[in-house]
From TrEMBL:
PANTHER family, alphabetized: HTH-TYPE TRANSCRIPTIONAL ACTIVATOR RHAS, HTH-TYPE TRANSCRIPTIONAL ACTIVATOR RHAS-RELATED
Domain HTH araC/xylS-type: 160-262
SUPFAM superfamilies: Homeodomain-like
Name of the molecule in the record: Helix-turn-helix domain-containing protein
Keywords linked to the UniProt accession: DNA-binding, Transcription, Transcription regulation
Keyword Transcription: yes
SMART domains named in the record: HTH_ARAC
Source species, domain of life: Bacteria
Listed InterPro entries: AraC_XylS_family_regulators, DUF6597, Homeodomain-like_sf, HTH_AraC
Length: 273
């Protein structure tokens, strides 16, 4: 498997975390299957290899990926990407509120599913797909995505607000935040914060913080594979080791020990942040 990332231009830094590319080889008899874990970001995805791909929730195939799609906020366990043939995937990994700010789609409508590209973002998805497939190299794919997104940015000229700051702060603090304190900073009631956060981010602030903390567990264990679970639980803000294990099982369906026994490069690349 070949993995790579490319940074966005400064003008897009508030909206795009990075562009990513995965290349692999599989067969119908031995497909490559990767878990897509709950994460603090979402991606637009284009397949430029042989295009038969599937997205699976709890073992149930829900769609083929034959062109571009936008994967909304993932909060559920056991979402899988299955690959066969020569695999090439290009993605735009948006910041917490980046896709909403560029395209205005209420993100709670796409949580744990994909965004219908017949909606307001359809033109973006179709043009990105066409140009990524036609491009002869990854830098060309990045340039194509940049051109399309910069054009959209100039059209909508989004203004960042308290929700953008709060979402970024939750990620920066690895989910160890107080909802009451967030409300105070934003000068919003709990209900107002919840409603606006759901629209821009796709989940409640509390769930988003739990997902960010889960991602930090993966990052620590990627960086320090010999770390003790008790120490990881303490550093990530869990009450104790049992609390960490319960939350980890909630997001992966497995205990940490079971999951990290088959933790692969794909997971390290995407979900350990």
């Amino acid at each position: 498997m070949k993995l790579g990332t490319y940074q966005p231009s400064p003008a897009l830094a508030d909206f795009v975390e990075h562009y990513w590319v995965v290349e692999d080889q599989a067969t119908p008899e031995a497909p490559v299957r990767h878990a897509v874990l709950p994460a603090a970001v979402q991606s637009a995805i284009v397949v430029f290899g042989e295009p038969y791909q599937t997205i699976t929730f709890d073992g149930r195939e829900v769609r083929d990926i034959r062109q571009g799609l936008v994967l909304g906020r993932v909060t559920a366990k056991r979402l899988y990407l299955q690959q066969t043939g020569r695999v090439g995937i290009f993605g735009v990994r948006f910041t917490s509120t980046g896709f909403f700010n560029l395209f205005g789609i209420p993100m709670h409508q796409a949580t744990d599913t994909t965004i219908d590209l017949d909606c307001a973002a359809g033109k973006f998805g179709r043009e990105l797909t066409s140009r990524v497939i036609e491009a002869g190299s990854h830098p060309e794919r990045v340039r194509a995505a940049e051109e399309i997104l910069l054009r959209q940015l100039a059209k909508v000229q989004p203004r960042l607000d308290a929700i953008d700051f709060i979402a970024a702060s939750i990620v920066r603090q690895h989910g160890n935040v107080s909802i009451d304190e967030l409300c105070r900073i934003a000068n919003l009631s709990v209900r107002q914060l919840e409603r606006r956060f759901q629209a821009k981010v796709g989940t409640s602030p509390k769930l988003y913080a739990q997902i960010a903390r889960f991602g930090y567990v993966c990052k620590l264990l990627k960086d320090e594979p010999q770390a003790q679970w008790v120490d990881v639980a303490y550093r990530c803000g869990y009450y104790d080791q049992a609390h960490l294990i319960r939350e980890f099982r909630r997001f992966t369906g497995e205990t940490p020990a079971a999951y990290f026994s088959h933790y692969d490069d794909f997971a390290r690349f995407f979900w350990a942040r």
